[in-house]
Amino acid sequence: MSDQPLWTVFLNASLINNFVLAYFLGICPFLGVSNKIGTAVRMGAAVTFVMLITSVFVTGINWLLAAIDAPYLALISFIAVIASAVQLVEMFIKKTSPALFRALGIFLPLITTNCAILALALFQTNRGYGFVQGIAFALGGGIGFTLALVLMAGVRERLELLDMPQVVRGTALALALAGILSVAFMGFAGLGG
Amino acid sequence: MSTLVQIGKSGEPTATDDFLKGLWRDNPVLVQVLGTCPTLAVTNTARNAIAMGLATLVVLVASNALIASIRKIVPKQVRIASYILVIASLVTIVDYGIQAISLEVHKALGAFIALIVVNCIILGRAEAFASKNTVVRSLLDGLGMGFGFCITLLLLGVVREVLGSGALFGVELFGPRFQDWVILVLPSGGFFTFAAWLLFFNWWKQRRAARAAGGGAR
Fold first, then answer.
1. Of B61, B103, B175, B201, which has the maximum CB count within 10 A?
2. Residue B137 placed within a domain
3. First to last CA, chain A
4. Residues B164-191: what's their mean pLDDT?
5. B171 phi and psi, to 5 degrees?
6. Closest CB to A172 among B111, B189, B195
7. Any domain includes A192
8. What pLDDT, on a 0 to 100 scale, did the predictor assign at position B12?
9. What tens digit of pLDDT does each residue of A11-48 get?
């Protein structure tokens, strides 16, 4: 069991070791849904929500697997929980906001294969976070993901208006931008110790 | 190679085409921009890049073959869930396998071996190819895509290791006076290197297209 204070766990997940910019997790939605700030915020919220659900279940799964002594089932059960949580969120969004449902498009079911979420489950297990720490970790990870997505969307909205050479447009430019953001986030390294 | 591709396009796709398209024309990373997370995360040295590429290759080939063989008994509604379970089981096997072969490599790759489960290339090939084609063709497709992935990882890994730590596969290259470009082995270096490779290939493709159109005028 890890004994880090909650705010360290939170800061670590959201800023110092940002899921997207330091661990390269969730790059696909990061590149795919970062064209408009509004969509980016909602995508971030959906991911954060799935992360919270996953974190709660992972604590339970770990306890159960330790009880029946079957650690090799961990990966399969994590992915099953994540897939069901995403299905829930998808149904919820479809019911409450069809417009958002269309805006997120294919990236909504693809949250299942968003590595940030499975990585959250794995890191939580490896570092031995307890129930409350797990929730702080999930919240930090989700907020960090949203932050990276929104920052990126802000920059890309401006870039739309600029005159760029055809070769640079698209993924290459987005990746170079992400690199610069990542350098900026390295500045948080001294935070929290 | 271009003639082979054309044969594949006009008539019945050939076996060579199934294999070759993954290497270049439909390269999973450079053309389809899938599986970017491991591409960026584990390519700080060439050795890690190869280990990751091979692990993914094994999972991809096995999952393509398995999924192609069960494609007729899996109902349409639950196919994605079943594919993910197949892939997760295969990754668990590979994870334990790597642990048995080399603990050092397992440590270097860390959680990213388990994260092969959510590599979009594997689910993408399962859905786009293996669920519709025979076992043999799916095997070839998996091999081609897997090697395409390996090569791309190696491209990134070599650049980052040579410039970032002045070595290749752990062998010093430039002597003591070389100043390492430390940024390239840090996370941001992954983004920059990948962006640079994409730029290079974009430029190359445009130049080739322009030549084909202008009859070599430019």
1. B61
2. yes
3. 20
4. 81
5. -95, 130
6. B195
7. no
8. 58
9. 888 888 888 888 888 887 788 777 888 888 888 888 88
Rounded to whole angstroms, the Cα distance separating B168 from B166 reads 7
Q: Which contacts (CB < 8 Å, 24+ apart) does range B195-204 have? A: B195/A172, B195/A173, B195/A175, B195/A176, B195/A179, B196/B159, B197/B30, B197/B152, B197/B155, B197/B156, B197/B159, B198/A171, B198/A172, B198/A175, B198/B30, B199/A167, B199/A168, B199/A172, B201/B30, B202/A167, B202/A168, B202/A170, B202/A172, B203/A167
pLDDT digits (tens, 9 = 90+) for B88-104: 999 999 999 999 988 88
In a domain, A193, yes or no: no
pLDDT at residue A2 in the model:
65
Domain membership of residue A28 as a residue range: 6-186
Other CB atoms within a 10 A radius of the CB of residue B174 amount to 12
Q: Which domain holds residue B62?
A: 2-161
Per the domain annotation, does A48 fall within a domain?
yes
Q: Is residue A123 in some structural domain? A: yes
Q: How many domains would you assign to chain A?
A: 1
Measured between beta carbons, which residues in chain A are less than 8 angstroms from residue B81?
A: 80, 83
pLDDT tens digit sequence for A74-114: 888 888 888 888 888 888 888 888 887 887 777 777 777 77
Is residue B101 included in any domain, yes or no? yes
Q: Is residue B208 part of a domain?
A: no
Sign of the Cα torsion B55, B56, B58, B59 reads positive
Distance (Å, whole) CA B93 – CA B171: 32
Counts for chain B of helices (H) and strands (E), in that order: 9, 2
| CB–CB contact B114 A123 (8 Å) | no
Whether B115 and A122 lie within 8 Å, measured CB to CB: yes
Count of structural domains, chain B: 1
Looking at the complex, report in whole angstroms how far the Cα of residue B115 sits from the nearest Cα belonging to chain A. Answer: 6
For residue A117 the two structure tokens come to 């979420």
CB pairs under 8 A between A and B: 110
Q: How confident is the model at residue B115 (pLDDT cuts 50, 70, 90)?
A: confident
Residue of B14 and A139 predicted with greater confidence:
A139
Q: Do B195 and A179 touch (CB under 8 A)?
A: yes
Distance CA A74, CA B42 (A): 23
Q: Which residue has the higher pLDDT, A54 or B169?
A: A54
Q: Is the ipTM of this complex over 0.95?
A: no
- B185 lies in some domain: no
For position B143, what pLDDT does the model report?
A: 92
Show residues of chain B in contact with A26, CB under 8 Å. 37
pTM assigned to the model: 0.82
